[in-house]
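Recap slide: Cytochrome bc1 complex Rieske iron-sulfur subunit, sequence and predicted structure.
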Amino acid sequence: MNDTDSVDLPRRKLMLAGVGAAGAVVALAACGSSGAATGAGNPAGNSNNDAGAGPADGGDSSSGGSDGPAIKVSEIPSGGGMVFPGQNIVVTQPTAGNFKAFSATCTHQGCQVSKVQNGTIDCPCHGSQYSITDGSVKAGPAPRPLASKTVTVTGDTLTVS
Ligand code: FES
């Protein structure tokens, strides 16, 4: 009998320990789940941010499409213009509502023009400047005007081809 009791005692201890362990597991699981929920909250926030960047990427890809980039009319300042490096084009608005587009490839040595200011489209490499009105050379060493492109206005969107 004593042997049996001595065997039973360790079993009871084990069972108690098991219950304790199970309780600990439950407690850990509870902590784990709340921790996971918190952890999931941050990645969700990050993924929301990524999702926010996603449409911008999509916008880039759609506007960067070689089929004919769509550009908002409001992006182009009146009396100025904007270079779209990804599409290698320059879109200008010499006078209100009058849009022009040109290749952004400088006719001197092929650099990409980088900015539009003071009525000219400027090349950063050797200082050539082109008219925002017709792409003609305003300052050398460029030998020829920028190549003209066709601008189509549809509502508030410009398409260059
Ligand atoms: Fe543009 Fe020389 S490549 S000025």
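Confidence is low (pLDDT under 50) at residues 1-7, 9-67.
The radius of gyration is 34 Å.
(End of recap.)
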